[in-house]
Structure formats: structure tokens, C-alpha cells
Specification:
Length: 295
């Protein structure tokens, strides 16, 4: 695996020729039938970007995959966004496997990464391997994401040696929200140096990518410069190799206050609500089902 000091020799530093660029201006060659971690590495080397979205079910996975989103994340945010919990903490490994299986059924080209949920990796590298093997064997995902800093470098090393690609998640780590005192920007001021050290330790341990959540752009830029592997940001400015958003935020399905870093590209809640109201009205008036929908 590439580390911060040793670029992956299998990856060409040459820019991707225009004729093999995938639709929608993707950094991944159109000839690639599956997005691989080395494509993300090449994107960083070539100064290109990639996009990542969460997905928790077959249809959204299919839609995002066909739209050219390079990486799909089966986030433990399914806990809040699908199961209706207040935080990501209650979701179980078994539940993550069900969501993972649905997403991998829909995603034909994207790299699918699943979160190791709270309680499934902290005890030991062995526990992390056992949980990751289940996500890969039963959920059919291609890689796992794990929250935590340099303390978890030995776990990342054990996972990568066991054949599990790891995306490291630093900055605001939602599983630690009670330790961190709520949703707060991380890596400000003096804490920036520690965040760079975390990223370097995790990349050197074999993480193929470092994701940063709610980090000042200057800190994210310093982290990105310190590691050879690609970085992904969510509320971390625009100098990272990739960006990720929770799909319900991005598509306007969720209600309530949005974080500053969320951009809404659609108003799906309004569209669905209008469809449900129209259906309800037609059922009540007897307009549905009409003759064209009747045997
Ligand atoms: O679970 C999730 O959706 C995440 C993103 C916020 C990066 O970890």
C-alpha cells in the first residue's frame, strides 16, 4: 500500500488521456469496469478530483453509480438517516451488513466503502479484522472506513495486511461525539499539527485514503500536503482530492438545520411530498386506478 513517503509504483503519474476519461468528467478512465483504490491514488497524483456520496439501498446506489459517482459510502449515518436514531452510535454490524448488501447489489462500477460501526473495532486489531471480514464477505463491500487517529495505526496496519483496504476518518468523528462535546469543528489552531500527525501515521500504516470531517480548510490543506494518499473532505474546504456528502442532505430529503458545508442540489422532499399528495387525492376521489390501470 502507498504510504505518505512511498507512492504506489503501480500508479502512473502521467495524466489520464482525454479519450479514456469517463463521462461527467470523472478522473477514472472509462475503461475501468470498477473504481479501485489505485484510481483514487492516480487522481491525487494527477491533480484530479473524485466524488463520494453515501448510499444505503439498491436504487440510490444504482442512480449514483450511473451518474458517475466514483465512491459510495455505506455510512453508519444510516443510523440517523435511515433508522431514525439521534446519532450514529446505535447501528449494529448486522444492520451495516444489510445496508452494504443492498448498496453492492446496485453499484456496478463505484468503489463501495462501508463504515465499521461503533463497537465493532475498538477492542483490538483482531476484532477490527473479524468485523471487516464480515462486511466484505456478507456485505460484499470493497473497503472499510474507520474513525480515529494515530492510536488506531496498528489496527489499520493489521487490516491492510489482512487484505482489507482502509479509509481513515479523522477530524470530527461522529462516533466520538460525546467525547468531543457535540458537533464541533476539529483541528483549529494548535490542534492542526496533531491532525497532520494522525493522518501521516494512518497513511503510513496503509490507509488508502484519509477522510476529514469538519476541519478548517487550512488544516485540511496541510493534511493533504503531508500524505501521498488521496484525501476526502466533508466540511474541509476544497483542496482535498475528493468530497463526500450524505445523500439525503445533498438531495434535499432531510428536513431541519443543515450544516454549513451542505449544498442541496435538489428538493426531493417537496417532489415526494407532492407525489404522495397527488396519489392520496386521486385515491380519495376515485380517479386512481383509472381504466388504463385496471385489468
Ligand atoms: O457515516 C457517514 O455518512 C460518514 C460521512 C459523514 C463521511 O461517515
Amino acid at each position: 500500500m502507498p504510504t505518505s513517503s512511498t507512492p504506489d509504483p503501480a500508479v502512473s503519474a502521467a495524466p489520464v488521456p482525454a479519450e479514456v476519461a469517463a463521462p461527467y468528467g470523472s478522473a477514472i478512465p472509462a475503461t475501468a469496469s470498477r473504481v479501485r483504490t489505485h484510481h483514487l491514488q492516480a487522481a491525487k497524483l494527477n491533480g484530479q478530483k473524485f466524488a463520494m456520496l453515501t448510499a444505503y439501498d439498491q436504487y440510490t446506489a444504482q442512480i449514483f453509480d450511473e451518474a458517475g459517482i466514483e465512491v459510495l459510502l455505506v455510512g453508519d449515518s444510516a443510523s440517523n438517516n435511515v433508522l431514525g436514531n439521534e446519532t450514529s452510535l446505535p447501528i449494529t454490524l448486522d444492520e451495516m451488513i444489510i445496508f452494504s448488501r443492498a448498496v453492492t447489489a446496485g453499484a456496478k462500477r463505484a468503489l463501495v466503502v462501508a463504515d465499521l460501526p461503533f463497537g465493532s473495532y475498538e477492542q483490538s486489531p483482531g476484532q477490527a479484522i473479524a468485523s471487516s471480514v464480515r462486511l466484505m464477505k456478507e456485505g460484499l463491500v470493497h473497503a472499510v472506513k474507520m474513525e480515529g487517529g494515530a492510536y488506531y495505526a496498528p489496527t489499520v496496519r493489521a487490516l491492510t495486511q489482512a487484505g482489507v483496504p482502509v479509509m481513515a476518518h479523522i477530524g470530527f468523528t461522529p462516533q466520538s461525539e460525546h467525547m468531543l462535546g457535540g458537533y464541533r469543528v476539529q483541528g483549529r489552531g494548535d490542534a492542526a499539527r496533531a491532525m497532520v500527525d494522525d493522518a501521516v501515521a494512518l497513511a503510513e500504516a496503509g490507509a488508502f485514503c484519509v477522510l476529514m470531517e469538519m476541519v478548517p480548510a487550512a488544516t485540511a490543506t496541510a493534511v493533504d500536503a503531508a500524505v501521498a494518499v488521496p484525501t476526502v473532505g466533508i466540511g474541509a474546504g476544497n483542496t482535498t482530492t475528493g468530497q463526500v456528502l450524505v445523500w439525503q442532505d445533498m438531495a434535499g430529503l432531510r428536513t431541519g438545520k443543515m450544516a454549513k458545508f451542505v449544498k442541496q442540489y435538489a428538493q426531493l422532499r417537496t417532489i415526494l411530498s407532492d407525489a404522495a399528495k397527488a396519489y392520496g387525492d386521486e385515491v380519495r376521489t376515485g380517479a386512481f386506478p383509472g381504466p388504463e390501470h385496471t385489468f
